[in-house]
Structures are given as C-alpha cells and as structure tokens.
Automatic annotation (TrEMBL):
Subunit structure, interactors included: Tetramer of two alpha and two beta subunits.
PROSITE patterns assigned to the protein according to its UniProt record, in alphabetical order: B5, FDX_ACB, TRBD
InterPro entries: aa-tRNA-synth_II/BPL/LPL, B3/B4_tRNA-bd, DNA-bd_dom_put_sf, Fdx_antiC-bd, Fdx_antiC-bd_sf, NA-bd_OB-fold, Phe-tRNA-ligase_IIc_bsu, Phe-tRNA-ligase_IIc_bsu_bact
Entry EC number(s): 6.1.1.20
Domain B5: 441-517
Phylogenetic classification of the source organism: Bacteria, Bacillati, Actinomycetota, Actinomycetes, Micrococcales
Organism: Brachybacterium faecium (strain ATCC 43885 / DSM 4810 / JCM 11609 / LMG 19847 / NBRC 14762 / NCIMB 9860 / 6-10)
Protein name, entry field: Phenylalanine--tRNA ligase beta subunit
GO BP annotations listed: phenylalanyl-tRNA aminoacylation
Length: 866
C-alpha cells in the first residue's frame, strides 16, 4: 500500500495552501482510493536553528572527549546569562548550554537544536538532564536522529546548516527548523485495488486527486526531454521462446549507461527524506535514485555495475538446473517458466543476472566501488512476473507494480530521469548511445454506445458527461455516427479492456454519490430450508450433549492416508490436489472429516486439555475418476442442461459431513472418584443424538472400517425411501495404532456421518403422536441369536410382535460367553408398553409377551434366554 507525502504530491498537482492529509484522503476516497492511514509530522515541539557561540572540549575518564557547547537559540528560547546552575564567565549573550559528543562543528556554525519538549522520530522525547557534570538543556541533532538519513557530505555527526558567522543559510537563531527541513510533512497511506496499478506512483495518485478535485495536474513524464532516436548502446536480445497467454514475457527493454559516477556520493537529504516517508530505507545514491523514480513515475528500474557485465544482454526463459543468488543472498533454483535477464559471460546468455521484474542477482550488484552503471527499464508481462514472484516467495516493490501493469511508454523516460538525477548528485556522464529494444503494442480500442452507462448503472448520464469523463482519464475518442464512440484507453490504463470498464470509470468520475441507494423490498421469508434446519439441529444436539464445536482447515498431506490405515484401494485416497496450496505439506483436500478433526483433538490435548469431546460439520470432497478437463461454457447465454451435466461430471464430488471425537475422562474428578472415560458406546450415542435431532433413526451393524478398531466399531445405516437400508457413516473406537501414532488417549472413539444423507432419510413431515394418560408397563426380554444378527433386526421384530402397545424399545445389554454357546450372543431389551384405551391388565401384558417371543423366533430365530 503506497504512502503519499503531501509535499511530493504537490509537485504534480496543485494543493491549496493549508491542505491537510485528511482532506487529501477524502478526495482520493471519492475516486476509489481507500485511505489506510494518516501519518503526521515526524517531529513535534520546539526544534529550532541555533548558532554555536562557544565550544569547550572536556576529556573524560573513559577516554572519550565531550563538548560543552553554548548555543544561541534565539531570544525566545535563550536562558539568562547569569544562570546560577551553570555559570558562564565572560559570556555576554544569553544562550543554552548543551552537552554534545560530535566533533564536526565549530563556533559560528548554524546547527539544529531540539529543546526540551521536542519529540523526535521513534517517540524520543527531549528533556533537560544532568550529564558529564553539566545540565544539558536540549540536544544538537544529527540527520539520523531527525529521520533524514546520513549527512550528504559524508560527515559523521550533527547537521551543520552553515559554516562560520555569516555563512550558509539565511536562517537566524530561533527560526523554526521543522519547516526549514520539511519535517512537518504529512503522509497519506492508501489502498490500491489490483486493477489500478498506475496508482502505485505519485504520478498516478496526483492524476486521481486532480480528477476528484479539479486541481491542475502536471504530468512529470511530459517534462522529461527524450531523444529523437535510440541506438548504439549495449546489445539487447529478446529471446523469450515460451510466450504465455497475452504476449511475450518482455515486450520492451531500455538500457541507459552512466559513466564516471562518484562512488562516495551521498543521497541528497530531500530524496532520502521522501524515500523514508514513502516507507523505503535509503541505501546508496544509485539505488535510492532508482527507487525514487519508481515511486514517482511508477516504472521499476534496476541498476547494474556496468564493469561486471558482458554484452549482449539476453532476456530468456530459465533452463533446467539453473540457479541464481538474488540480492537477498538466497540461492534459488529456477523454473523453466521464470523469465531471466542474462549476459554473455561464458556464452550467449549463459550467466543469469536476475529474475525479470522481480529481483536482481548479486553478481552484478551495484557496490560502494561502482563508477559505471547500466540502468534497465523494461516492460514485462504481468502474469509472468506474478507467477515468478509467488513461485520464489519474492514480493518485491518492482513485482508489485509489474503484476498490476506498468505503462509501456514509461521505460525510456524513467531511465533518462534516473540517469540525470545520478549525474546531478553523483557526477559522471550519460552515455548518448542507448538501447530501446522491442515493440509497443497500442491499446485496443473499445466501442461504447453513449447510453451504455445509463443502461448499466441505472441513472442518466449526458453525452457530455460520458465524453468528459473518458477524456479526463486520458482516453482518445472517435465519434461513430453520433450514438457511439470508439474509445482508445491511455497506455497507463491496461485495466480498460471492455465496455464495462469504461462504464465504471464514468460512474466513478461523475461520482458514486450520484448513484441513489435504493434497497429492494425483501420478500416474505420462507424460513430455513429443510437442509439448513437439519444442520442446525444436529449441531445443537451435539453441543447440548457436552461436545464443543470446532473448525479445521480442509487441507491435508498425503501421509494422512497411511496414518489412518486406509487400504490401497480405499476410495478415500482419491483426493483433489490443489494447484497452488497454502502449504506444500498439505496440497490435498480432505476426503473424510476425521482427517482434519483428529489433528485438532491432538492439538487441544497438547495445549493442556486432559480429555477431548469435539465435533465439526463441514464439507469433504473426492476427485472424480475421469481426468477430462472441466469444460467452460460460453457466457453469452445460460448453459444448457447437457453443458451443466458435463461440468458436474468433472468437478470433485462434495458432501456435507458430521464428525465427532471423544476421548479421555468424560468429566472432572471429584471425591466420589474418577469419572468414566469416553468410549465406543458414547460415539454411537452421539450418532443417535444427531439422527434424532433431524427426525430419523439409525441402525447399527458390526463392520470393519479404517481407522476404527475391527471389533469395536460398526456401520451406521438409515432406511431409505425405497425401503432399503443405506450406509451413512461409521462409529466406534479408533484403532490402537492410529491412537498411538496421532497421540490420543487410550480408547479414543469417533463417529463420522454423511449429514446430507442423514437429513434426506428423515420424513418430510413428522406427525405428533398423542400422549397417553394411562400408566406404562415395563418388561425385559433377553434373546439368544446368532452372532451375525443385528440388534436392530431383533428390535424390529419386537415392535412388530407387540404392536401398538410398544411405546419404547431399548437395548441395554449384549453378552457373549460359554453359557450362551459358540457363535451366539444374548441381546437384552427393555420394553415399555402403554395403551391409549385404558390401564393394561396382566392378561394383555402376557399376550403381548407371547406375541413378542413368537415374532423374534420367526423373524431371526431368536430364543428367549432362560
């Protein structure tokens, strides 16, 4: 997000006297540049010009010599000469006494003095204090202490505004140094949307301020004299043999040489101050000039040490195995799609000099001994730069601009502007032979009916407003029969490619506030859908059962399949792979909710929790078996049903799932003893609660299913509309190997349900049953059945046998052992009977028992256990 110093902005557009940062921010907001922050003056308080009257060096025991200085800071700020705290024999003029450790000044010099009450950058407050046997009543300031950077003359010490009496500036002691040094500048930070890349420069922001306020605007590029022709400079070869969509990686490359630069030349203070205000650290004259021009005009530049270059320079794609050590001292392995700047040391384009539009390499880096430089200003394809920057995680200032689009008309003007600034402040000479290689493609014209904006935005725009708005942003207009315009966008607006882009500009410049805010009348609500109600009911039921809802990211690594002991042919291994994952360790989308929920359980236990009882409902996805690419229907009309079906067939299959994990103690300990641990039965109870909340019931059957314990888990089924039972999930205790590898408490259990299928199995309308006022009768039954007979089948037979008198049937015990016999089990049910007609008699209860026993024997071969 660019920072805009107001004094810098005022060089390109007229700011009325007294304009505040708040008013500038408000003006920019009206044209779509949102304010991110406002930064006030760097220095506040009494910062004044002072003249050194007397300087006495005082050696200290530590070997250091400090100066006791009397400074005239003007009548308003001087103390009395007869200050009893610090006598001044022979001193006739009032002054201030200050202790200073610098030695680059002498009596008569003009300096900058911060008096008590001044606050310097870094929230450094100045106060009078006793030191080295004196009361230092202020501070004589250096450039770095004021946020101005080092002295341009290369001297190490405080700022000297003028040497000797009567020399230097026309300033007088007591003058305001804040205004003199430009330390009262305000800075506005703005947020630039991706389609407004030209606003990453003072040139672009000034233009937008002019659009908003009508203030006069001066294009700084128009003031740069350009040569009539170019040629004779270093040879440039554009050899991009792997063009991407939209053109080649580099369409224009300008190279300008400067020789004889003084390597000791310092960046002028005004430039260093502006760079600092804009959020960049001053480094050296050459680097600072390239950064300054980039911030001012928007064209990124790169400076090479010309003596380290071997012509010709070749722009090409990377080759297999190539590496580059960039300016941040990181050696990077290059990708074949990376666009490179290379030279011919060792052969044609053999040595890599930098990643085009992103960052240069250290082999030709400008150093403190550089005297000859070559300035590069190029036009790189936005998508190429963006992909390279993300691939190598290099979000540089240059890449930030190139990936949003840079004016292709800028390279020559920007390179010459930078060359002249370097010569102005560092000496040397600009090489009259320069290179401008490549072809600039003109912007494509757009046909715009004069009424297009009115039809799209919904309010009337006059033809004059349409024309004025487009001409204001720099478009060239051509009349087409009076009802339409052929609009050619300016070179700095690569975002203007279709008719709707122009309409947006018209609405923006005429004013968003002119568009009325009419909220549509909300239609009568129909409430939540059946699916929404089911989702909420299931989640609420689990929360009421004591579980905590969590949210886990849907990304997993391939190793999770082996951790959860999936078979090689398990369909849950068919995961969707992301092209641009947030983390290289997790490039896949989860196929089961437990894949991401179990790590959440482990993380909670690692943070000190003694038990875990969590749940989540979210989506899972599985890749289709087909490898066909997803077709992209035309946007001209609604896709046909066949086209939508073709798209659906290639997209990942997604479903809404509900999963829970429980493990460890089921509650806090007390004097009564330790609580029972969560177990496999609790997992099944969680599933039953979720099913009951959505209005259905589940059937449990024993089954083996990873990652569950083979003998302590089961599949969960519901009765579908066609009468067949369908598997909708699994529950039970996790496999001991899974528990150990993940790091969960012993016997941790889990459940996972297909929530969409569970909700679909519930009846659309649930009829309320009347409540009988007669007392119930309770009976218990224990039936011996074969091991593979599900308890749900026995329960169904009990309900059929007893009939309408069966109010509730509940399984409360399962027993296997020698007394039952091999291959058999005992299922014990508690049955509650009740009649709507009257109190049940012993005879009716006995008849119901007989019918129950007969029905179970007939249906599943069950025998009543004696």
């Amino acid at each position: 997000m660019p920072r805009i110093p107001l004094t810098w902005l005022a060089e390109h557009t007229a700011l009325p006297e007294g304009t505040s940062a708040e008013s500038v921010a408000a003006a920019l907001v009206s044209v779509g540049l949102e304010e991110e922050g406002i930064f006030g003056a760097q220095v506040t308080g009494p910062l004044v010009v002072g003249r050194v009257l007397e300087l006495v060096g005082e050696p200290q025991k530590n070997g250091k010599t400090i100066n006791w200085v009397r400074v005239d800071v003007g009548p308003e700020h001087n103390e009395d000469a007869d200050n009893p705290k610090d006598p001044q024999p022979g001193q006739e003029r009032p002054s201030r006494g200050i202790v200073c450790g610098a030695h680059n000044f002498a009596p008569g010099d003009l300096v900058v003095v911060s008096l008590p009450g001044t606050v310097l950058p870094g929230d450094f407050a100045i106060a009078a204090r006793k030191t080295y046997g004196h009361v230092s009543d202020g501070m004589i300031c250096s450039g770095e202490e004021l946020g101005l950077g080092p002295d341009p003359a290369g001297e190490d010490g405080i700022i000297v505004l003028g040497r000797g009496h009567g020399a230097g500036l026309t300033a007088e002691p007591g003058d305001d140094a804040i205004a003199l040094l430009g330390l009262a500048d305000e800075v506005v930070e703005i947020n630039v949307t991706p389609d407004r890349g030209y606003c990453f420069s003072l040139r672009g922001v000034a233009r937008e301020y002019s659009h908003s306020t009508g203030a006069a605007y001066t294009d700084p590029v128009a003031e740069i004299p350009l040569p009539e022709s170019a040629g004779g400079g270093v040879e440039i070869r554009l050899q991009d043999d792997s063009p991407l969509r939209g053109g080649e990686g580099c369409s224009r490359f300008v190279a300008v040489g400067v020789t004889g630069v003084d390597p000791t030349a310092q960046t002028p203070r005004w430039m260093a101050r502006r760079l600092t205000q804009a959020g960049m650290r001053p480094i050296s004259l050459i680097v600072d000039v390239t950064n300054y021009v980039m911030l001012d005009l928007g064209q990124p530049l790169h400076a090479y040490d010309a003596q380290k270059l071997v012509a010709p320079i070749v722009v090409r794609r990377a080759r297999a195995g190539e590496e580059l050590t960039t300016l941040d001292d990181v050696t990077r392995t290059l990708d074949p799609e990376d666009l490179l700047i290379t030279d011919s040391e060792g052969g044609d384009g053999a040595r890599v000099l930098g990643l085009a539009g992103v960052m240069g390499g250290e082999s030709t880096e400008v150093s403190e001994t550089t005297t000859d430089i070559l300035l590069e200003a190029a036009t790189f394809q936005a998508i190429t730069v963006a992909r390279t920057a993300r691939r190598h995680r290099l979000p540089s200032e240059a890449a930030k601009r190139f990936e949003r689009g840079v004016d292709p008309q800028l390279p020559l003007a920007a390179a010459l502007r930078a060359a002249r600034l370097i010569v102005e402040h560092g000496g040397g000479e600009i090489d009259t032979r320069l290179t401008d290689e490549g072809v600039i493609a003109p912007p494509a014209p757009i046909e715009l009916p004069l009424d297009a904006a009115e039809r799209l935005v919904g309010i009337a725009y006059t033809p004059a407003q349409v024309r004025d708005s487009l001409e204001t942003i720099g478009c060239t207009l051509e009349e087409l029969g009076g009802e339409s315009l052929r609009v050619t966008p300016p070179s700095w607006r690569p975002d203007l490619t279709i008719r709707e882009d122009l309409v947006e500009e018209i609405a923006r410049l005429v004013g968003y506030d002119k568009i009325p805010s009419l909220l549509p009348t909300a239609p009568g609500g129909r409430g939540l859908t059946r699916g929404q109600q089911g989702h909420r009911a299931a989640g609420r039921a689990l929360a009421e059962a004591g579980l905590t809802e969590v949210a886990s990211a849907p990304f997993i690594g391939a190793g999770v399949f082996d951790t959860l002991r999936y078979a090689a042919d398990d369909e849950r291994r068919s995961a969707v792979r992301l092209l641009n994952p947030l983390s290289d360790d997790e490039p896949l989308m989860r196929t089961s909710l437990l894949q991401t929920l179990l790590p959440v359980a482990r993380r909670n236990l690692g943070r000190g929790e003694e038990s875990v009882a969590i749940f989540q409902h979210a989506t899972t996805s599985r890749a289709r078996t087909t490898d066909a690419p997803t077709p992209i229907p035309s946007a001209a009309q609604r896709p046909s049903e066949a086209e939508l079906a073709a798209v659906e067939e290639t997209l990942p299959a997604e479903t809404s799932a509900l999963a829970a994990v429980v493990g460890g103690p089921s509650g806090p300990g007390s004097w009564l003893g330790d609580p029972a641990p969560w177990g496999w039965a609790d997992a099944f109870e969680v599933a039953r609660r979720a099913a009951a909340a959505v209005g259905t019931r589940i059937e449990v059957r024993q089954a083996e299913h990873a990652p569950f314990h083979p003998g302590r888990a089961g599949e969960l089924r519901v009765l579908a509309a066609d009468g067949e039972s369908t598997v909708i999930g699994h529950a039970g205790e996790l496999h001991p190997a899974v528990i150990k590898e993940i790091g969960l408490p012993a016997r941790t259990s889990a459940v996972e349900l297909d929530l969409e299928a569970l909700i679909a199995s519930a009846p659309a309308v649930i009829e309320a049953a009347p409540v009988s006022t007669y007392p119930p009768a309770k009976e218990d039954f224990a039936f011996v059945v074969e091991q593979d007979v599900p308890a749900s089948a026995v329960e169904a037979a009990i309900v059929v046998g007893i009939g309408d008198l069966a109010e509730d049937v509940h399984l409360f015990d399962v027993y296997t052992g020698e007394q039952i016999g091999e291959g058999k089990k005992s299922l014990a049910f508690a049955v509650r009977l009740r009649s709507d007609e009257g109190t049940l008699t012993a005879e009716r209860i006995g008849e119901a028992r007989k019918r129950c026993i007969a029905a179970v024997e007939s249906a599943v071969g069950g025998v009543l256990r004696a």
